[in-house]
Amino acid sequence: MSLRVKEIGDVFNRIAKSFDKTRRKPWRCAIEAIEGLTEGRILDAGCGNGRHLLLLSSMGFRVVGVDLSKELIRIAKRRIKEFSLTNEAELIVGDIRFLPFKDEVFDGVLAIAVIHHIPGVVERVRTLKDMKRVMKPHAKAVLTAWSIWSLKRLWRAVMYKFKRPFSSEFGDAFIPWRLGSDTVWRFYHLFTAREFRKIIENAGLKAIKSYGERKKYGLFPENLVVVAVKIDTH
Predict the structure, then answer these.
(1) Superfamily of structural domain 5-229
(2) For 140-185, what is each residue's pLDDT tens digit?
(3) Quick one: which of 136, 155, 156, 179 could link to 173 by a disulfide (CB 3.0–4.6 Å)?
(4) pTM for this structure?
């Protein structure tokens, strides 16, 4: 099955309002991107409704958000206006695989719950390389993705691979989003911790911390977090 990235953007345009209602709280790990900084410019790649952008902008950082969904960007723009943060935040509708920025302009990068929506390992690594390109030397990136280790997610990945053995990677799956009486299907590539860390390091970033986030009574982490740094090669 060939999955165009445009289709992913269309899905998030459709669920944007519902997504915004249920995705207001920032992830605590986002703060790790600015650890040691008192000011600077931060890239929020796949910024969605702007929940992390709002947090970092309110702390005095200049934040640039990029997202494929024009509807989510519209919501994020409304929210930064409501919080009087228009001077600290900039929002762009765009594809994070092709970042429209010069080299080495960001002091930190967030990619929260976005890499897993990119089909194909080659494209995922290439996207991470472009993130590395726009980072200043020694800048940190905080990257998260969904873990494959839950029975429901693992079952979806196994079944998808069984149905499409030659046109998918193991870990590919479609996850449902309930929208009233309709079901909207979102593409994910579900990771093991080792696999997620490997693609980040293959992109030339150095992972300095990795861990999983799990629900209170969960056996396995639902989300994988990697904090990586760009090593100065000059």
Answers:
(1) Vaccinia Virus protein VP39 (3.40.50.150)
(2) 999 999 999 999 999 999 999 999 999 999 999 999 999 989 999 9
(3) 156
(4) 0.94
